[in-house]
Amino acid sequence: MKKIYCLFAYGILFTSVSYSQKLRYGGIQQLGIVVTEHETRTNFTLVNGLRFGRFFTGIGAHTQFNRRFYNAFYYCNSIFNTTAVYVDGRYYIDKKKNFFTKVNGGVNLITQKLETHYYYNFKKRPGYYCSAGLGFKARIGKEIFYSFDITYCLRQIKYAYKNMNYVTRQFETEKFDLRQSAIIITMGIEIF
Amino acid sequence: MKTKILFTTLFLALLSSSCIKDKGYKTYTISRPEYSVKSGVKEGAKLQEPQALKNPGSFVLYNTTMYINEKNKGIHVIDYRNPTSPVNKGFVPIPGNLGISLNNGVLYADCYCDLFVFKLLADQTIQFQNSVPNTFLTRMQTFNYDTNYVTLNWIKKDTTVSVDDYMRIHNYGTNSDGIQHFSANANSNNNPPRGTSVGSSMAVFTIVNDHLYTVDNSNLHAFSLADALHPTLESKQHVNWNVETIFPFKNKLFIGSMSGMYIFSTDNPSQPTYISQFNHVTVCDPVIADERFAFVTLRSGNSCGGFTNQMDVLNIETITNPVLVKSFPFTNPHGLSKDGNVLFVCDGQAGLKIVDATDINALTLKQTLPVGKAIDVIAYKQLAFVMLENAIQIYSYDQQFNVQLLSTINKN
Questions:
Q1: Distance (Å) from the C-alpha of residue A100 to the closest C-alpha of chain B?
Q2: pLDDT at B244 over 70
Q3: What is the mean pLDDT of chain A?
Q4: Which comes out higher in pLDDT, residue A48 or A161?
Q5: For the residues B310-325, what does the mean pLDDT come to?
Q6: Quick one: CA torsion of B363, B366, B370, B376, rounded to 10 degrees?
Q7: Which pLDDT band, with edges at 50, 70 and 90, does A46 fall under?
Q8: Distance in angstroms (rounded) separating the CA atoms of residues B186 and B127
Q9: Is residue A16 scored above 50 in pLDDT?
Q10: Is any Cβ of chain B less than 8 angstroms from the Cβ of A167?
Q11: What does each C-alpha distance from A16 to A10, A50, A58, B216 come to in angstroms?
């Protein structure tokens, strides 16, 4: 949770420091697919931030949706709906600001409700999220752009599973650390 | 320029597609059993040096002595002839022990799936006499194929493996090394004290009319104690899953489970008969009863689940149809005990609560003792024995709700 507060604090700090300079609001909403080792899933991305020259920085959220439900005891990393909350940084490569590179870093949180029973329960823990990608945008209106990007991301899904060990007849906690590397292809609109 | 960027993007996409991977790591506890041969356990089951209380379970009172279960380890014996200065007499190591009951100088205790029988001797020693093997089948150590071995302890070690590896090597905790043996015992014999022990609301053993009744996770067992040193299992019946406690009152047995309270009749002592039940939400629920009312504490928690923390008072005058009179909110109620109109409720971290139960419809909180986490209590002959998380306290009380601390036995 501290990480999330730090991210928001960073966003507020950046906004206040840069306020006097030539800043413009930028908002990005995108839909896309996440290609993982085992499956392809849908995602939604929302970024709000500030543009300054060729730079853009903001706070983003990236939600990855399940298509199926798996038994949480077993493999694999992508069984839960997760949302990454991160700092988004972009640099527009060309003068026309059509092509850009981007780097994201933040925390990844399990957002779906996990099962709880009197002899077992799950505890969500924050993991990391980082990504880097390339993309372009094309004007489709006065301040509206079509955007497309390809991103390579590393996402960590962490949770603890407390259950009764029927051999020892004691409660034990198992900690899961699931790390997923994936390609995210997204498209949507940018508003500047 | 655009062509270069486009080709760079496609190249990076193709390159990274070979790097998409799901990797899972699991940190879990490997539990390795430490065994003893069963004959060694029987030989070693005698009063030994006092040990610190670490994880106490239920307890009973018998002839000015407290017998406190150390979960899965054995029994602490504490002499309270002088309640202001109780003496820890020693510890009887019984692996897998959860239940204790005493009758006419004979102590009955479980050792995993076996029932052990001990004789109390006049010199205050405890002598193993007999065992009834393979009685409590839900506590059978099915992973242990050699029934001559008893698990004494679990040696724990955390380890982290990849999930793939874990699924492949999912066979932890089956090593059979670390066998320990107890030393031999000395014999003596004398006349035992008479009477039956008084159990707490969280007890799993109880004795009524020369019959020992026990509950395990799901079953009610009835043993005849006609031959006290050679109890015989007369019946076993399924009650429900997650049965927790048994409390006797006259010819009735009140059984607390996580889903409800069950009432059995002991009119036929060999085969208790189901009379009725009262269902509630899934939580932990010790129960006590008197002539007219049953008091059921419902608590939530990790192992209990649920979100309910209250005490239900049930009217059991029509024993075939217990009726909820009223629910009273508590913080996290555990064990309870009632003597006359004085009702003691262990309310977890909120301490010990002393309640005036004169008017059942309007129970009045007389006093809260901030003793730390209160777990279980027995109020008996103007003495209240309170099991706390880190100590045992003995209080004197009267029917005017005057309560005074007499002594504290720290766990260490």
A1: 9
A2: yes
A3: 82
A4: A48
A5: 91
A6: -50
A7: very high
A8: 9
A9: yes
A10: yes
A11: 10, 11, 13, 65
Quote the minimal CA–CA distance from B27 to chain A in Å. 5
Residue B404's pLDDT is 93
* Candidates B12, B20, B303; nearest CB to A182: B20
Inter-chain residue contact B24 with A36, CB threshold 8 Å: no
* A24 or A22: which leads in pLDDT: A24
Q: How far is CA A178 from the centre of its chain?
A: 15
A35: chain B residues, CB-CB within 8 Å: 17, 20
* From B22, B26, B72, residue closest to A38, measured CB to CB: B22
The arithmetic mean of pLDDT across residues A37-49, rounded, is 88
Chain B residues with CB-CB distance to A74 below 8 A: 167
**pTM (global) more than 0.90:** no
* Alpha carbon of B390: minimum distance to chain A alpha carbons (Å): 20
Quick check: A119 contacting B, CB < 8 Å? yes
Residues in Cβ contact with B173 at an 8 Å cutoff, skipping those fewer than 6 apart:
A167, A168, B30, B31, B32, B33, B143, B154
Phi and psi, residue B120, nearest 5°: -85, 130
Residue among A36, A135, A172 minimizing CB distance to B20: A36
Calpha distance B288→B198 (Å, rounded): 12
pLDDT band at B181 (very low <50, low <70, confident <90, very high): very low
Confidence (pLDDT) at B174: 32
Cα of A76 to nearest chain B Cα, Å:
7
B69, B56 contact by CB (below 8 A):
yes
pLDDT (0 to 100) of residue B176: 33
Please give the pLDDT value at position A11: 58
Q: Is B72 left (phi over 0), alpha (psi -120 to 50) or beta?
A: left
Asked whether the beta carbons of residue B5 and residue A134 sit closer than 8 angstroms, the reply is yes
**How far is Cα A36 from Cα A43, in angstroms, rounded to an integer?**
12
Contact map slice: A 67-106 vs B, CB within 8 A? 74-78, 93-94, 98-99
Q: Which of B12, B24, B31 has its CB closest to that of A178? A: B24
- What 3-state DSSP class applies to A38? coil
Inspect the interface and report whether the beta carbons of A76 and B1 lie closer than 8 Å.
Answer: no
Asked if pLDDT for residue B143 goes beyond 90, the answer is no
Q: Which among B162-171, B254-263, B350-359 has the top mean pLDDT?
A: B350-359
Closest partner residue to A183 among B8, B16, B304, by Cβ? Answer: B16
Chain segment B65-84, per-residue pLDDT in tens: 999 999 889 999 999 999 99
pLDDT at B152 over 90: no
- List CB contacts of A5: < 8 A, sequence separation 6 or more: none
Those residues with Cβ within 8 angstroms of residue A190's Cβ, 6 or more apart along the chain or in another chain: A26, A27, A28, A137, A144, A145, A146, A147
Answer whether B154 sits within 8 Å of A170, measured CB to CB. yes
CB of A176 less than 8 A from some CB of B: yes
* Residue B368 main-chain phi, psi, to 5 deg: -120, 125
Query: Which pair of tokens denotes residue B406?
Result: 């007499």
Strands B310-315 and B74-79: unpaired
Distances (CA, A) of B196 to B57, B100, B211, B241: 19, 11, 11, 28
Which pLDDT score is estimated for B195? 77
Residues of B in contact with A93 (CB under 8 A): 5
